[in-house]
Amino acid sequence: MNRAIDQALRERALKVIPNGMYGHESVRLLPASFPQFFSKGEGAYIWDADGNRYLDFMCAYGPSLLGYRHPQVDAAARAQLEKGDTLTGPGPVMVELAETLVGMIDHADWVMFCKNGTDATTMAMSTARAQTGKRVVLVAQGAYHGAAPWCTPIPAGVVAEDRAHIRTYIYNDCASLEQAVAAAGDDLAAIFAAPFRHDAFTDQELPDPAYAKLARALCDRTGAKLIVDEVRAGFRLARGSSWDALGVQPDLSAWGKCFANGHPISMLAGAESCREGAGSIYATGSFWLSAVPMAAAIETLRIIRETDYLEHSVRLGDALRAGLAEAATRHGFTLRQSGPVQMPQILFADDPDFRIGYAWVEELLARGIYMHPWHNMFLCAAMTEGDIDMALAAADEAFAAVRARIDTLEPHPVLVAMAAMLEHHD
Ligand code: PMP
User: Which domain does 181 fall in, by range?
Assistant: First the structure.
């Protein structure tokens, strides 16, 4: 595959962008052949800067729910753009969108819009503290809630005081949650939980209903606020709050990524019991109230309500999971496939340093399939059965190719260095 343009862009980027790239879309923790820059996306596909096309199982790390450049969503965005986007005050679309979301999310009596998931989780934390007058916030060990000093997974630039009242418990572990709550004494402001455990580098875990109910009960008992971080999973598991299925309503929920199908908007949703706290914090941003993403969100949410986008993604996810398991077995591999099928995590058994997984996704990439070696992936509603068949055919070849060179595989050097750094930090 030709990568001359990508390579030239990387060289230029190195001069004007620290390390050439930063954050979750940096390819430094991906196999060497993965492109850094993409020139376009359409439906379920992305094209790298050199024009190579891939069936994209990352969906921009979540924002593409219906497929890139969705005609109806983008038409709604364009129509709003003709009228104005970032103005001196919000557009009428803001009220319509807020009403729409309060109508779709059971526990939500109000919403506040922002731009990124980190804005929403950080506002959730501040709201819970403002509402309760307490300080301690519990998060599950290893959970990602964003890139602000209180929650970023990389310690550089963070001081201990930034996290003075952030404490951890183990997801799905009732005893550890009870202990953490007890240790907080009468100073507990909030418990954070993801809809399911979707940590990187590890198997995903669906929520144990007993854990979700306990989190609710402990908040009720102490007056703390239960916050569900829906940024990654929201509207991918349900057409409303992900924990409805467990019979658990949070007090606050943070949303982002996909509810405008890739247009930049996120939000905090909350119950009546948190309205005063939310109204008391100072929260804003130059682009938080821009109208174009709000118009895109209204259209995306209509499609969420009126189509089978979710059932379709689950059907395709089921076919992918079954087909991959079967192909892996045929080539003598055991896959660890976890998480909801429409947000799959695919790891290899007996692959502690990920060298098999890295080789496999490289072989897939060479065959036009973009998969990730350690982060959960996403299916979008624009994918078809034909796409899944193509992915399975490529996977079959990729298993064979990895099998043929299994004795020559090496672990990824940056991954090894980072694991050592994090271990040292702990
Ligand atoms: N919470 C969760 C669960 C996430 O997955 C993410 C982003 N991956 C965030 C918060 C932060 O969102 P953003 O990157 O938009 O700030």
Answer: 71-306
Long-range pairs for 79-82 at CB < 8 Å and ≥24 separation?
79/295, 80/291, 80/292, 80/294, 80/295, 80/296, 81/292
Closest approach atom of ligand 1 to CA 121: 10
Mean pLDDT on 130-154:
97
Q: If DSSP codes are grouped into helix, strand and coil, which group holds residue 84?
A: coil
The DSSP call for residue 197 is B
Number of H helices, E strands in the chain: 12, 13
Cα angle 270, 276, 281; round to 5 = 90
Residues 282 and 413 placed together within one structural domain of the fold: no
Centre of ligand 1 to C-alpha 64, Å, is 14
- Residues 301, 316 within the same domain: no
Determine the pLDDT at residue 423. 67
- Give tens-digit pLDDT for 397-408: 999 999 999 999
Mean pLDDT of 192-221: 98
Quick check: CB of 115 below 6 Å from ligand 1?
Answer: no
Q: Compute, in angstroms, the gap from residue 101 CA to the centroid of ligand 1.
A: 19
Looking at ligand 1, which residue's alpha carbon is closest to its atom 14?
Answer: 117
The verdict on 23 and 90 lying in the same domain is: no
Question: 122 CB less than 6 Å from ligand 1?
Answer: no
Which pLDDT tens digit goes with each residue over 283-296?
Answer: 999 999 999 999 99
**Are 64 and 378 contacting, i.e. CB atoms less than 8 angstroms apart?**
yes
CA of 392 to the centre of ligand 1 (A): 29
| One domain, residues 229 and 121 | yes
Say if residue 426's pLDDT is above 60.
no
Ligand 1 lined by 339 (C-beta under 6 Å):
no
The number of folded domains in the chain is: 2
**Closest Cα to atom 12, ligand 1: which residue?**
117
Distance, in Å, from the CA atom of 10 to the CA atom of 316, rounded to the nearest integer, reads 35
Query: How much is the pLDDT for 422?
Result: 66
Whether residues 21 and 152 share a domain: the answer is no
Asked which of 282, 306, 330 is the last residue of a domain, the reply is 306
The last residue of a domain, from among 243, 276, 306? 306
